[in-house]
Amino acid sequence: MIHDDFHALFAGLLDEPTVFANENGPRPAKQFSTIEISPSAPHPVEHGQVDGDGNRKSFASRVVEVQIQCYGPGAWGRADALALRIHSEAAQDASESLDIGILSVDRIQDVPALVDKIHYEERTILDLTCHYVGSYVEWTSWIETIQGSLAADGLPSVPITTA
Description:
Helices cover 20% and strands 46% of the residues. It is an alpha+beta fold. The model has no long low-confidence stretch (mean pLDDT 88).
């Protein structure tokens, strides 16, 4: 979930092959990007109210450090464009739909990568701090509200609701 959501967001904003860092496999293209996410410990889980079907939504938020590395010709320009593009309306809409908030662009730096023993290629590293909310829905046997009425001999009925 969390990995897929971040990949979907940034792959859509980069518009180039984007793979997770530290995965084995062939290089995707001459120009590509990697994404690495480092979630912090989640905050305590919060529980919503039980609905009429007995389902309850629970969720927890966490801060996530994200590193995007752009490789190949024009790496700096692509990373810099992404650092600006994440503040666009389209990026904000996409991130909200995935329960991701972009808190800050922390650093952008040019760090060439050694391709073989003597050749380097362009690489730019973009560090971001994000916020993510994960959630799940479960059926629970918990009774959230009881409604009814109470009647005693000869007295009018009194409605009762407990929550």
